[in-house]
Specification:
Blueprint: H1 5-20, H2 25-43, E1 48-53, E2 56-60, H3 62-84, E3 86-88, H4 94-103, E4 108-112, H5 119-135, H6 139-158, H7 166-194, H8 202-220, H9 227-235, H10 238-262, H11 264-269, H12 272-291, H13 297-317, H14 323-348, H15 368-382, H16 390-401, H17 405-430, H18 449-467, H19 469-473
Antiparallel strand pairs: 1-2, 3-4
Amino acid sequence: MPPILWPIIIPLSMIPVVYLFRRTQLGALIATFTALGTSWLIIKLEPGFVVDILGRALILNDFSQTALALIAFFAAIFFFISALSPSFIEEKTKRVRLRQEKRHRKAHGGVQGQEGRTLYPVGLALLSLFIGMSLISHLGIIALFMQVAVILIVFVIQGGRLVSTRAALRFLSLMSLATPILLLAAWQFDTYNYQTRLPFLPDTYQQTTLLVGLGFSLWLAIVPFHSSLTTTATDSYPATAAFVLLTVPAIILTIFMPLLESWSVVFDYSLFFENLLIAAFFTAFIGGMIASIQRGFSQLMGYAALYDLGCLLLIIALKHEEGAMLLLMSLSSRAVALSLLATSTAALRATHARDGFVELRGMAWQMPLASFGLFFGGATLVGLPFTAGMMIRWEILAQLASEDVRLVVLLGLSGLAVFIGYLRGIQHLLDDSNGEQVDNVTIQTQEPLGLRVMIIGLIIINLLMSLFPSSLFG
């Protein structure tokens, strides 16, 4: 049996066990170690031809191997964060809230591990599906597999919540729109491949790249299709939101990079990269500007991740000579930043039902480590000094300066807007005035021990990535 099948089979085989223990921390631990083992198996693989199935060769390239190992490793991190987080009561009637406030002012269910009861088994299924998708070189088959993944991700986003289905429905509808578009683009690619006597006319170039661009714009949540990403961050639990914000763009870029290489003639001829530069820039700019006016840390994480997504796409659009390496480094810094933000937000929500700035007023004095984690995670997405995102942001700005200096100024202002959004949140956390608070804290007034250790570990990893990038990514 080809070695590549083991990282696919092992997560699938562990799903029944994880499902049985999904409501306990044991299920989370099993899922965590399964994902870590999958990451280790992927690293040990040899890139190149894998196997021939139904006349189609499955190939694992260097970029896909590294990206898949990264996805599996941080999936384990998100499983563990979810296991350490309490289960929250999302919505209460006014009568129930008043009755509870008279007793202990309790704002959550207090059961650890419940938050990820859907994430653990479905996350393992998604890992197997992502590995299989990355080996396929046919766009039409990838689109069908991605549709299956979208349906599974809907269960992750919803997470058993009964309050609202807005995020899950929006994600499903927008992502599903890309499937017929990319199937049509795949049909045009096949026509060019198998009917070589038919010339691939300039109009066909334009039409095909338009279909591919529109389909991947829907998948990646590029502006104006970004609501599937931002509502997921707003309405989901911290760990599950970070899981979706990291894994979905990462696997789509893993698919997108080989496609750009194999069809470089088509994309170069149709000015695809020039249009991608415009789309990436507006995604980063709008994400940063809207981030500055958010009123909660979950919403802020969504728009900060949108800004970071625009910067990811700028690396591709600018065709940097070390583009693949920069893209992997950017995905790594994004993973560390989202993990840190999810852990810090989960720690703050250990005492609050929500994470709005007003609800968390003054919490920095009770949870200083979680508050610093939010600040440091946001700074990483912005690319400030002594964070993992610093070197990537400077490389993007230097390359962008050769195109247009005005774009550098606007992108810098967008990053500053994201930083202002986090400064506003930290200002509320430091505000110890006796203003009105919507949801008062419970008896516990400090971070849970497990989440505290996670925050410290992620901060250390972040600092190491900023100080020794070459040794970590060589």
